[in-house]
Amino acid sequence: MFSLASWRYNLKYNTEKVQQPEFGKMINGQGMGLVSKLRYGICTMSFNGCEVIAVHNALVYLGQPKELKDIAFYMERFRLLMGFFGCNVFTLGLALKHFGAICPRISSTDGTEAFIVTFWTKKPFLSSIHTVFCVNTPGGIKVYNRYNNVDTTYLCKDVEEIAGKRPPIAIYKIK
Question: How far apart are CA 172 and CA 133, in angstroms?
């Protein structure tokens, strides 16, 4: 297993070798642009950085932006299998709290203005998971970083359209 030294390696790499995404801006399309080159765990964020990006987008939404490299550095402690499978989604609340946002885990998005949701991309336990930041709008749910290779937001009618017919793994209310 990687040690604290790998966390430091990734922070150094993300600080010195890669240009940072524009500070204070929402991120879409983790497989595109500057964000795709940043490291998290043993991979680049284009592969496994969706939880880091969801926390980043939530903090931007709250008006408390932090550098993406700093969020990734903190969240390295929650990575699964050296970061190959991203982050333990049940620790996203801890990461948000660390950066000054108290965001409880909830079971429904009813009445929630903004939230982070994690879901299976296909069959549970036989596929990957994906985590996105969402904002309820009068026209539907605006989803940030919905797809790896699309740099715009998506508008979905409900959480089922985001997660498919599978129940979400975790939902965090952003307040």
Answer: 9
Cβ within 8 Å of residue 47, ≥6 positions away: none
5-63 pLDDT, tens digit per residue, is 588 888 999 999 999 999 999 999 999 999 999 998 888 899 889 999 999 999 999 99
Quick: pLDDT tens for 77-117. 877 655 556 688 899 999 999 999 999 999 999 999 999 99
Q: Please tell me the distance from the alpha carbon of residue 9 to that of residue 15, in angstroms, as a whole number.
A: 10
On whether the CB atoms of residues 43 and 128 are closer than 8 A, the answer is no
What's the rounded Cα separation, in Å, for the pair 130 and 120? Answer: 6
3-state SS of 75-136 is: HHHHECHHHCCCECHHHHHHHHHHCCCCCCEECCCCCCCEEEEEEECCCCCCCCEEEEEEEE
Mapping DSSP to helix (H, G, I), strand (E, B) and coil, where does residue 60 land? Answer: helix
